[in-house]
Fold this protein.
Amino acid sequence: MKALKNLVKAREVPVFVALVLVVTVAGIANPSFISAIGARDILLGVAIVAILAVGQTFVIVMRHIDLSVGSLIGFTSFLIGDLYSQGYGLWAGLAAALSVGVLVGAINGFLVAYLRLPSLVVTLGALYVVRGIFNDYAFGRTITAAMVPPEVAWIGLNRIAGIPVLFLIGLVLVIVSGVIMRRVRAARDLYAIGSNPAAAELAGIPVARRIFSAFVINGAITGLAGAVMLGRFNAANANSGLSLELIVIAACVVGGVTIAGGSGSVWGAFLGAILLQAITRTIGALGIPQFWQQAFNGGLIILAIAFDKYLSGRTKATTIMGSKDE
Amino acid sequence: MARSSSSAGNSVLEMTHVAKAFGGVHALVDAGLILYPGEVHALLGENGAGKSTLLKTLAGVHRADAGVITLRGQDFLQGSTRDSIDQGIAVIYQEPSLFPDLSLAENVFVGRQIVSNGLVNWAAMEKASQGLFERLGVSLDPHAKARGISIADQQIVEIAKALSTDAKIIVMDEPTAALSSQEVDRLFTVVRNLRDQGSAVVFVSHRLDEVFALCDRMTVMRDGSTVGTSLISETSDSEVVRMMVGREVSELFPKLEPHIGDVVLQVKGMSLEGQFSDISFDVHAGEIFALAGLVGSGRSEVIRAIFGIDRYDEGVVTINGTKLPPGKPAVSMDNGIALVPEDRRQQGLFMASSIARNVAVTMLKKLSSWLLLRRKNEESTAAQWATTLQLKFAAIGDPVERLSGGNQQKVVLSKWLATEPKVLIVDEPTRGIDVGTKAEVHKLLSQKAQQGMAVIMVSSELPEVMGMADRIFVMREGEHRGTLTRAEASPEKIITLATGGVIAA
Amino acid sequence: MSRFSFSWDKGVGLFLIIAVVLGSMLSDNFANTSNLSFVLRDVTEFAIIALAMTFLIISGEIDLSVASTLNLSSASLGFLYRAGLPFEAAIIGGLLVGLACGLFNGYLVTRLGLPSLAVTIGTLALYRGLSFALLGNEPVNQLPEFWISLGYGRIPGTFIPWSTILLVVLAAIAWFILHNTRYGRWTFAIGVNAEAAKFSGIPVQRTKLALFAMTGLMSGVAGVVYTLRFASASPDGAVGYELSIIAAVLFGGVSIAGGVGTLWGVLAAVLSLGVIRSALQLAGFTANSLLIVSGGLLLISVIAPKITEGLRNRPGAGSKKNTKKTIREVGNE
């Protein structure tokens, strides 16, 4: 019974409920929405953001942020296609994507963890610098369908048991990350660091090492996700991934991974990504012009943050005349 | 009381001739501490004496520049909090720092979660922490998140954490500052248990009555060095104070002849849900009006409401006949009220800002002509007050974080006295301050009262209340329990009222 | 504290001078009045918003939605004009929209208590989305000649653009308020310790609300200037501007943690960025290089203070001032 009670109180419940609501509303307005095709559409559209949101969770939970992911994934998706078209093969491309991701993550991680620079500023700078280097590297060229490695194209187009492979990749990532975040000691440290950074130092947690690792992991995930992006769009250019970081962070926040750090889960971030995508589709299903899309996303982020604040405010401190709630 | 075996060679910790400097500041000069298993050891000293630095060295936050530190005869691994924890040292800081988003069980085992087969075993952790809580005589739910639990409970969690690390040396820094007397009793029982089980407990406190009640031995520090150590049973209050201060301190509370005038401030029927209810009192010019009671009785909340930091739900506050709107500190200030807050660092000062800026911040409008505000005006005001209050500092442009606790409090007092208030409210005016400055502050308050200022003083230190107040308003759990005049007051009566009893007529 | 940012000021000022010198070396077309006029026009919108952003970041908050606000103001201006309003009225409309955006941000932060970083990411999307909703895909291009000439032209007989006058006036006012009035002191105090500010009688929430409103209004002003300069109101202008603005403010010596900064530093930083961009362009580098340079400057602006801080806290590196004072207690009192 207690387990059930705790489940109901979980941070992820509101997102899940919202998701169900949205799908219901959309389904009523436009029944084709709930069809297999409609669902598939959402799952396809969500894959990239979902994967990035999982990686971003590692960072946000520590009370940090990584704004460079959009530039990075754009770059690596281009890189994979570019290397393939030059004859280097799929694995070389993946290795390059991973290396670039790890490198960027390591630089970010070093500056934040060891030089103790604010992550907002560091990853903002990285966003610029990576995009700049990417632009120079791309030099106006585009990656076309012909330049996409067949394996990558395959994952973009195919389904297993009716579910898009892209989505399955994300799902596997979430499951594995979920277990790690819950059951691996080093991952639990991330929560401690986000919850009370000063106390984490005093408790003997190797804070700098953890922060560094989290950024590297996020970099690695983002780098490899370039393959997913390339598979999804079958193309890439200097604008790939532009502004993607904002949607990713929105997905996390909406999913209960609070900006203040210390709480939230990869499952929540995953659900948040799905919710955002569902809303996008819903807007279409309801016949609202696509122009309103961004406005809706913005409004949603604000609502999510406000709701998140309300949730944590409800379990506030005790007063001298007796405790309230928790 | 269990006797610790103090024969040489049996010690669990020996720190000798420890020195540590930060930049040009010598925090430790020749500090030492020797602990034996199974004792409660008091570490005493004024602010600036070096207690904190010594303990942080033990905790692994700092590395000593010189000196020898051995643990059961072995060299002590310095400079890493992880190493200190692994070597059996647990430190419970003045503000216990738990992780609000993590469960209590995880808080106990943070950084060292119980694993089986490489994965965290939640069930085992919850069971283990439950066991520890029971052992400490407290019923806490291991699943509950740490956010919002009382400071007393936070300390219990920290102690549970110490027990789970098998700590042989447990350091408690000012643990009773925020506890009610029941919670203090509970803590003392726990500490005595720890001692009986063979741990060495270091107890840092300014409250000598507690030290004498609980501890077996003591070490006194002054100006970065250890100046004495002895058995508690072989020393006395005044001896300890003399060692701490280095001179005889006779008159701690110079009370001047009061000239009490008309009512200046009236509080009628003030209530704030969850904090206090139906509070009414009058304060006269020239009077020192004390709000007494245990920690948590609502006194700070009352004065914050009067000043306007918090909005109250019901009631009226008038000053010289003018009704004050609730929740507007600026209006209260304009009408002559000043509040020296409880938490000096967090509420009273801008630590990184200069002394000048800190003193002048309440006076900005007066110091401006039209909109223009000149820095030299801020500086000259600050300099004047620094002289008046005998502030010890290097340059008026220095950040206040470089000052000692006592001098910092003088800065806060300056900033408020500069506004020439009719009603000066001070909340724990001498908390965490060395004995010498304490006397200066008391003298200052008395002088101001004699000059016609109405002073409202919140204090948890009975000697201070008894020595300073003309009238004492006793509160308990948000309610007014009784008022005593100076003549009729006694510590027993105050405590009786503060703990919920009544005084026989 | 103030001593340090003073020297950071000088550092940025020096940097500006070096940038100008390097620029003239890189290209012959750099150091003439025509180019200078170009640079001034280029930086005006950034600078105007940076003025307000300086106050905001010093007070401990941030606003990532400024570019979207600029854009929404511009879009509103176009929308109102296309709907038939006289241009002057449309300008006022655009300004009011900017103010409203700022007030909304301020409301979310001060009234609802939401963290400004996260919430302005939301309004960033919201405001830009609204621009699209207002104008659809069609920019408004037929703007009155008189106003366009103000946006683009110079004071007759000089190389100074009209918009620079506006900037100078606004900058002077901003400088005066920040460094020479109690409102400026309030801003710093709130940034250093908002709770202590409250306990000192400073109206923290009201001040922050005003700062957000001011930021929105300045974004609106920038939006009007932008529209006039490009002679067009479109739904997707000024993309990514917010990052350059924040980069300039931080490079100008304002600490992201709040409580520290000067207006001179920020102005010098904005000018530096403009100078560098111009120099790079004239020397044949792609506009892309500016991106990398901005990122680099941003990083330098945060790394450098850390290094100097580390040098100052070296063991043994004492300042004479400390030794004769009472012994400093590290940590607890």
Q: What stands out?
A: The CA atoms of residues 156 and 231 of chain A lie 4 Å apart. Chain A has one domain: 13-309. The beta strands of chain A are 159-160, 163-164. Residues 314-326 of chain A have pLDDT under 50 and may be disordered.
